[in-house]
């Protein structure tokens, strides 16, 4: 709290109480004027505060406005008043001073003169009642400053320049003691905020800052003026142990100092303060027993402070403005360098973003030109792909139709052979019975011969149908299942606008021997069936993969390629799964089972095995295993010309015509 005492008044009207000291510098005393005599006479006649009263005094707190010396008048402030006066101290935070003053409405406030500008900006008018002045100063306007002290043993630290980049101890951030020293650095042409290597704030100059420099924790300490002399006179610090750097001793202050001198704190009244309270407070502060006036040396037991009627604040305002501190801190915070220091990361990010936008704009303009050309090419490619899609659909449709005809022809031929054989057997039995019974009826024998002949003709037709079905298989050549799978996917994409996504897991190559068109149809049918089966699932997808089976993993010791198509459709019942694996029945209500029949037929014609298995969680996995084509077989087959026997979809099918010729007609012959 504001502690070392308000015991002296020096200045105008002999109102400063100080003690005489030997060898003090000679300064002029204030003459006794009639005005001064009148003031003292009126003071001697009127007794301040004749009735009990409570004074509410605000004390500014916060490192931006006060230093440790501001706490010193509080403890002894009541010594200037009689017992009839009670003092209630109101803490006024510097960060919210204006609002707190309006809310608390104290009678007075103890603050530095620079606060008048802040209060005026907030609509509060301050009236100076009295200014505090140290007894060791000539005037209240030049009363406080900074003594920069170092250990006298450190002879390398003689001037302020020697302390550049060193560690400094101070009381509070941006206190008058610290700012006065920084202003001295500014006057030397250096950057005050980056001159010292590190400034350590220790709350109080004594004992904290003094102990830090004595213990070697810092290189120097910023002390309030006259504190070092008081400590030496009191025996707390050995004389000569500490030295003031660039110390100045002149007629303004009876102590060595490093910085310029500035006004001390003042007591201010408000517009709402009652006039009698202001008058009695002024009389109480300015009416102690009058000591001798003038400048006094620091001696043990000498009074520290007094009060005078007026103190100018221009020097303190200049200090704050030059350092952009206190009420002018915004000048430092909003300067370009301060803004960059505080928001450098954001500024760099913004510059990088701006640079990226510029580069991106150039890139976009370039891309527009490139994309325009690409769009033209894409449109041409799309037209070409549509033509290819139509051709692919026509080719696959023709192959699918022929496969269906082959499947049905083979099935019908297989089923008819047994009844035809039975008919011929029955006819032969009848002939034997007629011969045994000696029946020579010519009509009956002619009828039996006709039955046997027509049955024989039916058997011939069945044989030709079977030979036709076998003849429709194309020539098998070396091919790559990876390329065939990709063609099947392209055909699927071109044939449908929306479909279930297909996840691929394909190696670089999967060489097999077969008919590329039939293999494409096999893969396409498997993918279509899987997509239709999983279409109702919320996350429907189909997985298509090709994997090599090494000879060691194959029972026959052959290298093979496994084609796997997997869907995540609903789980099949046991009956549905049995229909799927047993034969040609479809598990779909509207299906005929021809798609899987085509798949089985193509797999059989290529010597491949097909296997169905349930997928955990629902769906079906189809595995088709082909024999892998080794390199030497692939090269041998490549040397031999191959010609596909698959007829064009538009070519007339004479064999089919023969297969469906009516009874009695002769089958057509080929040249």
UniProtKB/TrEMBL annotation:
Region of interest called Disordered, as start-end residue ranges on this chain: 631-671
Keywords: ATP-binding, Coiled coil, Kinase, Nucleotide-binding, Phosphoprotein, Signal, Transferase, Two-component regulatory system
Catalysed conversion reaction: ATP + protein L-histidine = ADP + protein N-phospho-L-histidine
Composition-biased stretches (Low complexity): 644-663
Species this protein is from: Sutterella megalosphaeroides
Protein name: histidine kinase
Listed SUPFAM superfamilies: ATPase domain of HSP90 chaperone/DNA topoisomerase II/histidine kinase, Homodimeric domain of signal transducing histidine kinase, Periplasmic binding protein-like II
Bias-annotated ranges (Acidic residues): 631-640
InterPro entries from the UniProt entry: HATPase_C_sf, HATPase_dom, His_kinase_dom, HisK_dim/P_dom, HisK_dim/P_sf
An example Gene Ontology molecular-function term: ATP binding
Coiled-coil ranges from the UniProt annotation: 375-402
């Amino acid at each position: 709290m504001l502690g070392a005492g308000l015991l002296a008044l020096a200045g105008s009207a002999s109102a400063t109480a100080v003690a005489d000291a030997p060898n003090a510098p000679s300064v002029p005393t204030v003459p006794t004027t009639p005005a001064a005599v009148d003031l003292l006479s009126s003071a001697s006649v009127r007794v301040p505060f004749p009735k009990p009263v409570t004074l509410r005094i605000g004390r500014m707190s916060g490192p931006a406005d006060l230093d440790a010396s501001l706490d010193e008048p509080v403890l002894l402030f009541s010594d200037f008043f009689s017992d009839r006066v009670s003092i209630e101290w109101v803490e006024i935070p510097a960060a919210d001073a204006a609002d707190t003053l309006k809310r608390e409405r104290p009678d007075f406030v103890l603050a530095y003169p620079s606060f008048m500008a802040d209060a005026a900006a907030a609509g509060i008018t301050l009236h100076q009642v009295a200014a505090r002045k140290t007894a060791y100063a000539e005037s209240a306007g030049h009363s406080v400053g900074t003594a920069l002290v170092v250990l006298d043993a450190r002879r390398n630290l003689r001037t302020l320049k020697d302390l550049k980049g060193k560690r400094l101890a101070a009381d509070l951030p941006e206190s008058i003691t610290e700012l006065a020293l920084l202003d001295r650095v500014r006057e030397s042409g250096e950057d005050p905020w980056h001159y010292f290597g590190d400034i350590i704030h220790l709350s109080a100059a004594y004992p904290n800052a003094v102990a830090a420099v004595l213990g070697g924790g810092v290189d120097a300490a910023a002390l309030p003026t006259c504190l070092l002399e008081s400590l030496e006179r009191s025996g707390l610090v050995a004389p000569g142990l500490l030295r003031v750097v660039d110390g100045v001793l002149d007629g303004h202050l009876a102590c060595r100092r490093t910085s310029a001198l500035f006004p001390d704190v003042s007591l201010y009244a408000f517009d709402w303060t009652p006039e009698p309270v202001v008058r009695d407070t002024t009389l109480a502060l300015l009416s102690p027993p009058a000591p001798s006036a003038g400048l006094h040396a620091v001696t043990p037991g000498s009074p520290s402070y007094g009060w005078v009627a007026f103190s100018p604040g221009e020097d303190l305002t200049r200090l704050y403005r030059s350092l952009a501190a206190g009420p002018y801190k915004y000048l430092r915070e909003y300067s370009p360098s301060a803004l960059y220091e505080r928001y450098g990361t954001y500024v760099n990010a913004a510059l990088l973003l701006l640079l990226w936008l510029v580069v991106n704009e150039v890139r976009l303009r370039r891309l527009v030109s490139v994309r325009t050309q690409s769009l033209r090419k894409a449109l041409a490619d799309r037209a070409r792909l549509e033509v290819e899609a139509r051709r692919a659909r026509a080719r696959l449709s023709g192959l699918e139709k022929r496969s269906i005809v082959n499947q049905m022809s083979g099935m019908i031929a297989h089923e008819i052979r047994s009844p035809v054989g039975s008919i011929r057997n029955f006819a032969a039995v009848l002939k034997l019975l007629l011969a045994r019974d000696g029946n020579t009826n010519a009509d009956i024998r002619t009828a039996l011969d006709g039955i046997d002949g027509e049955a024989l003709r039916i058997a011939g037709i069945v044989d030709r149908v079977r030979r036709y079905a076998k003849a429709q298989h194309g020539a098998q050549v070396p091919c790559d299942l990876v390329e065939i799978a990709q063609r099947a996917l392209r055909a699927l994409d071109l044939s449908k606008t929306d479909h279930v996504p297909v996840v691929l897991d394909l190696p670089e190559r999967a060489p097999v021997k077969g008919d590329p068109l039939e293999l494409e149809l096999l893969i396409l049918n498997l993918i279509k069936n899987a997509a239709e089966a999983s279409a109702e699932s919320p996350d429907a997808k189909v997985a298509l993969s090709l994997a090599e089976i090494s000879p060691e993993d194959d029972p026959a010791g052959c290298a093979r390629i496994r084609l796997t198509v997997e869907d995540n459709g609903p789980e099949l019942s046991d009956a549905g799964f049995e229909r799927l694996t047993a034969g040609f029945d479809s598990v779909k209500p509207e299906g005929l089972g021809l798609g899987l029949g085509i798949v089985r037929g193509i797999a059989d014609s290529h010597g491949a095995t097909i296997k169905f298995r349930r997928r955990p969680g629902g769906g079906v996995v189809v595995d088709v295993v082909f024999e892998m084509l080794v390199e030497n077989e692939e090269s041998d087959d490549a040397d031999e010309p191959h010609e596909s026997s698959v007829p064009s979809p538009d070519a007339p099918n004479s064999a089919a015509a023969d297969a469906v010729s009516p009874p009695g007609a002769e089958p057509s012959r080929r040249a």
